[in-house]
Design goal:
The chain is mostly helical. The chain contains four helices and no strands. It has helices spanning 3-12, 15-42, 47-58, 67-89. Helix 2 (15-42) runs antiparallel to helix 3.
Length: 94
């Protein structure tokens, strides 16, 4: 096995690498959702927080293999887009 083959294997990662990436991404998404929850409770939701949610969901979105989870992610993504549009209409976002 040549050096090139070893480097290629490192780029692909092992079977657990995809799971690790998914867990890190899920943690980031949960952090953003938690920030949104606190902002809603305080009554100070900002466009930046909605953008952060949209970015966290859209960030290198890979198929989960779970149709129910995909449906939830799609609903969150749609809701974030609706809330951003509402803020734009109200003049909070340019």
């Amino acid at each position: 096995m040549g050096v090139e083959a070893l480097l290629a294997l490192q780029d692909v990662g092992g079977p657990l690498e995809g799971r690790r990436r998914s867990i890190r991404r899920a943690g980031r998404l949960l952090d953003v959702l938690d920030d949104l929850k606190l902002a809603l409770i305080d009554g100070v939701l900002t466009p930046d927080q909605i953008r952060a949610l949209s970015q966290a969901i859209g960030e290198k979105r890979e198929a989960t293999g779970d149709p129910e989870l995909e449906a939830v992610l799609n609903e969150i993504e749609t809701r974030a887009a609706v809330e951003m549009a509402k803020m734009e209409v109200r003049g909070f976002v340019k």
